[in-house]
Amino acid sequence: MEKQKPASAPRLPFRRLVDPKLQGELIELAFLHKAVSLGFAVAKPYGDSERYDFIVDYRDNIDRKLLRVQVKSTALLHQGCYRIWCAHSRTRYSRTPYSRRQIDFLVAYIMPENAWYVFPVAVIGVRTCIKLFTQHQKTKSRYEQFREAWHLMSDPLEQVGKPASFPEQSAGEGARSTQPSLGQ
How many domains does the chain have? Predict the structure, then answer.
């Protein structure tokens, strides 16, 4: 009789079949498609020296604003959660969280869930990592309010919420940067 492996997360066909750079490019295309289909005008800056991946233009009757958007993705379930890195690398061993001077939104795509999370940079604060628990109703992430929250990018008054309304960081929620960050 063959020895069976213990039950674990099902192997997904997209899990690390492509290198991270190609995965990022594919997710950027998916973001572009999603944002345009929702009525946003989207532009991609030339090169990759800025901290943001896209410029999103929203229009309403009162105002027009360009938003800087960083796009992240993951397909790996780690200890019951999906981790989204909310930081850029300064050195090989150091990550610095994004600041309000660098981006306006971080948009995260969870590949196995086919779910987008739209985070105003104020929600991220000094976190370098956000953990999203999406598997069980009991352990749903405190960030579920940002799942498919595209309206935050189209309503400037909604995204400038009161700081008290944003989730607080709990111990182990995400590593804090050891490097100081400008603009926070």
Answer: 1
The dihedral sign for the CA sequence 56, 165, 141, 122? positive
Calpha distance 129→87 (Å, rounded) = 7
Bridge-partner residues for 42, per DSSP?
56
**Sequence-separated (6 or more) residues with CB below 8 Å from residue 115:** 109, 134, 147, 148
For residue 60, being part of any structural domain is answered with yes
The DSSP bridge pattern shows strands 41-43 and 129-132 to be unpaired
Residue 166, in any domain of the structure: no
Per-residue pLDDT of the chain (184 residues; tens, 9 = 90+): 555 544 444 444 455 557 888 888 999 999 999 999 998 999 999 988 889 999 999 776 677 789 999 999 998 888 888 999 888 877 767 888 888 999 999 999 999 989 999 999 999 888 888 988 877 666 667 888 999 999 999 865 555 443 334 444 444 444 444 444 444 3
Domain that holds residue 41: 20-161
Closest CA to 48 of 64, 71, 30: 71
The domain that holds 69 is classified in CATH as 3.40.1350.10
